[in-house]
């Protein structure tokens, strides 16, 4: 006989853990997304300079993050990088939620590599004559990228960027491996104490589903908004 009791995990400290885990997941996603998008825009602008040594460095960065599992990248940052840093810096990071900080760095660097490739594809779809026309009008390289080319590249790249956002959101669950108390970590902790495995992970699944649908809905709204502006 099925004996489900969702009330057992939706009360007291377990409810607090779930709410705290949800906020941590959303905070980790939002911060990572903002950092990743900003870095991706910078990477695309630098690659457009067509300077060979810079291109090699960026290509190595992108290849590393696209071919090494995300969990390994988190371990590198959490376990490996602190050994290379001065003890004063490591101590400072550890005193300020080091698990969250290292997970954030690993996640946004990974997402930036993918986003930069999507934006780069979008930039390639923009006519090269627009760069020449903007420069002929007296715009600097930065102004040309910021005001003319990148807005068009972003508009073309909305669909793949939404996919990368979804991937980034789901990847926040990897942070549990280094002790970040996000939703998956909190769910595992509740399951260990209550033995309500189905109820606990059903709630976590609903959270991830709802947030994923929300990200897709925001992406679809933004895409429609852009189409209306183009008319």
Automatic annotation (TrEMBL):
Entry keywords, A to Z: Cell membrane, Membrane, Transmembrane, Transmembrane helix, Transport
Source organism: Collimonas fungivorans
Entry's Gene Ontology cellular component terms: ATP-binding cassette (ABC) transporter complex
Compartment(s): Cell inner membrane; Cell membrane
Membrane-spanning parts: 17-46, 100-116, 201-222
Gene Ontology MF, one: transmembrane transporter activity
Major localization listed first in the record, in broad terms: membrane
UniProt protein name: Amino ABC transporter, permease, 3-TM region, His/Glu/Gln/Arg/opine family domain protein
Membrane topology classification: Multi-pass membrane protein
